[in-house]
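Quick start: read one record
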Amino acid sequence: MKTTLRQLEYVVAASQARSIARAAEKMRISTSSILAAIDSFEQEFGTQVFVRQRSKGLITTAAGERVIARTIRLLDETRSFSEDLMGRPRQLTGELRVGAFTSVSPNIAPLVIRDLAAEHPELIVHLLEGDIISIQQHLRDGEVDILLTYDAGLHPDFESEVLTSAPPHVVLPQNDPLATHEAVTLTDLAGRALLLLNLPHSSRYVSLLFEREGVTPGPIQKFEIL
């Protein structure tokens, strides 16, 4: 590979900053160095990574998003390899921007951030909440580095790692006859009114659960998290 690791870092910086000038400022180098890295990368791998638009700046193409994601993993592995050889435990520093699905964030995000802070005290974590569509767009645009979300509705281009299993749950009034059951089936809920989150994919996901079981729920109402 003719493109150097340093040039790979420049290409990733350009994708995240969405601007050659901002990437150069972040890396403390000249804009010509960023441009040279992008040209070298695109020529060597035969892939157009960026489209330059005056109104929107530097736009990463669909193919570019895939190779940038792999480049980030390569750079991470390279740093880890170097630190292992030098016998140093890997310590994360800097800033980590996390995109979190709205319904996951209140219960899961604080635990993840707490564990990260304990293991990597010099790492600053920023949290950006949103629905499943918006947070994926944030990841494509380089506005966040990782996502904390369910795998339902996740784009297949994204690689994911399962942290825990979260089976569907139903919340019932205390005086509901089903509330005393250890488990509730979808058949038990046939014809009952449902109150669902008014978020893209959320209500559709629940509807699909009923459809797969051949069960028809009652009227569906939606609410928003304030």
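The chain has three domains: 5-85, 94-148, 177-223.
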